[in-house]
C-alpha cells in the first residue's frame, strides 16, 4: 500500500512539474521540446532547448541519417518535414549516379541536404521563393558546396511572382504571376538548365503547391531532358494537376510508384515512334 501511495505521489508530482513548466515555456517551444524528446531522448531535448534560447528561437536538430545537424523553427511544420525526410525517408529512392538534381519547392532545404549526402557527386539546385523559408534554406545548406540555392519560384517561364497566402503554414505558400512585373523572380525548367549549362536532369523534384499546373502545361521544352521526376500533385488547390502530368508523359515509357505524398516517375524515356 505504501509503495502504491509513493508511486501515485511521484506521478502527481511529475504532472504538477509538467504543468508548471508548460506555463513557463512558450507553446511553440513546448511542442518542439516534446517532439525533440520523443525522437532523440530527454537529455538531447534539454540541450536542444538551451540552444533554442541562445539562438533567437532557432532549433538545432541532429541529422539522424548522415552527419551534422539541421536548423528548424520550433513548433512549426518544419518538424513534420524533418519527419518525412529523415525518419520516414520518403525521398530515399535509389537513382543511378545522378549528377544534376533540381529541388523545386525546397522549403528549408531538408530534401536538398538529404540528396547532397546520399549523392555527394551530384549538384543539387535548390529553388525556394518564400523569404523566411529561403533564409532557413541558406542556413541548412551553408556547409554543402554541392547545393546551389536560388530564391525563385518554378514557373513556365522567366517572370515575377507574388505570394498569395502569406498566413499559411510555411510549406503551403502558393504563388501567382505578378501583373506588375515586380516580385519574386520565377524561372522555367529550361531557364534553369540554360543558367547552369545542363542538358539532362537526373532528378527533378517538384513540390510547389499547385504551380506544377503551369510547369506541366508547358512541358515540351524540358520533359525529354528529365530522367526521373518526384512530384507532389495539388489538385485540391488547382484542379487539373494530375491530368497535366498524364499529358506531359504521353509518348514516354516510365515506371510509376508512390512514396508518401509524392508520385515517383522513374526511368523516363521517349517511346519509339
What does this structure look like?
There is one protein chain. The longest helix has 23 residues. The protein is built from 9 helices and 13 strands. Helices cover 37% and strands 22% of the residues. It has 2 domains: 70 residues, no CATH class; 184 residues, 3-Layer(aba) Sandwich (Rossmann fold), CATH 3.40.50.150. The model has no long low-confidence stretch (mean pLDDT 88). It is α/β, with parallel strands linked by helices and 273 residues long.
- What's the mean pLDDT score? 88
CATH homologous superfamily title of the largest domain: Vaccinia Virus protein VP39
CATH topology of the largest domain: Rossmann fold
Give the neighbour order of strands across the main sheet. 5-4-3-10-11-13-12
Major sheet size, sense and barrel closure? 7 strands, mixed
Structural class: alpha/beta
CATH architecture of the largest domain, by name, is 3-Layer(aba) Sandwich
CATH top level label of the largest domain: Alpha Beta
- Strand segment count: 13
Secondary structure tally, helices: 9
Overall helicity: 25-40%
Shape by Cα distribution: globular
Q: Please tell me how large the radius of gyration is.
A: 22 Å
Features:
273 residues; alpha/beta; Rossmann fold; 2 domains; seven-stranded mixed β-sheet; four-stranded mixed β-sheet; 9 helices; 22% strand; globular
Structure, briefly:
This protein is α/β, with parallel strands linked by helices. It is 37% helix and 22% strand.
Write the layout of secondary structure elements.
Layout (H helix, E strand, L loop, with lengths): L1 H23 L2 H14 L1 H13 L4 E4 L6 E4 L5 H10 L12 E5 L5 H9 L4 E5 L3 H11 L5 E4 L2 E2 L4 E5 L11 E3 L6 E4 L1 H7 L7 E4 L5 H5 L12 E3 L9 H8 L3 E8 L2 E9 L3
Parallel strand pairs: 3-4, 3-10, 4-5, 6-9, 10-11
Antiparallel strand pairs: 1-2, 7-8, 7-9, 11-13, 12-13
Helix pairs in contact: 2-3
Amino acid at each position: 500500500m505504501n509503495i502504491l501511495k509513493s508511486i501515485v505521489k511521484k506521478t502527481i508530482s511529475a504532472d504538477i512539474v509538467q504543468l508548471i513548466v508548460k506555463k513557463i515555456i512558450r507553446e511553440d517551444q513546448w511542442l518542439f521540446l516534446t517532439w525533440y524528446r520523443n525522437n532523440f531522448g530527454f537529455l538531447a531535448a534539454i540541450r536542444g532547448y538551451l540552444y533554442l534560447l541562445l539562438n533567437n528561437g532557432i532549433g538545432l536538430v541532429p541529422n539522424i541519417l548522415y552527419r551534422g545537424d539541421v536548423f528548424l523553427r520550433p513548433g512549426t511544420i518544419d518538424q513534420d518535414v524533418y519527419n518525412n525526410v529523415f525518419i520516414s525517408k520518403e525521398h530515399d529512392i535509389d537513382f543511378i549516379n545522378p549528377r544534376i538534381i533540381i529541388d523545386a519547392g525546397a522549403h528549408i532545404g531538408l530534401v536538398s541536404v538529404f540528396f547532397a549526402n546520399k549523392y555527394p557527386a551530384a549538384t543539387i539546385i535548390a529553388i525556394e521563393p518564400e523569404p523566411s523559408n529561403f533564409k532557413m534554406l541558406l542556413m541548412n545548406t551553408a556547409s554543402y558546396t554541392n547545393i546551389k540555392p536560388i530564391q525563385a519560384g518554378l514557373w513556365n517561364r522567366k517572370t515575377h511572382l507574388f505570394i498569395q497566402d502569406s498566413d499559411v503554414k510555411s510549406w503551403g505558400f502558393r504563388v501567382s504571376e505578378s501583373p506588375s512585373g515586380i516580385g519574386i523572380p520565377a524561372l522555367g525548367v529550361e531557364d534553369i538548365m540554360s543558367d547552369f549549362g545542363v542538358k539532362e536532369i537526373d532528378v527533378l523534384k517538384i513540390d510547389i503547391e499547385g504551380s506544377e499546373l503551369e510547369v506541366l502545361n508547358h512541358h515540351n521544352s524540358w520533359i525529354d531532358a528529365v530522367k526521373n521526376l518526384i512530384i507532389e500533385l495539388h489538385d485540391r488547390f488547382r484542379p487539373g494537376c494530375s491530368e497535366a502530368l498524364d499529358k506531359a508523359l504521353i509518348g514516354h515509357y516510365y515506371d510509376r510508384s508512390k512514396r508518401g505524398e509524392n508520385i515517383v516517375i522513374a526511368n523516363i524515356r521517349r517511346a519509339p515512334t
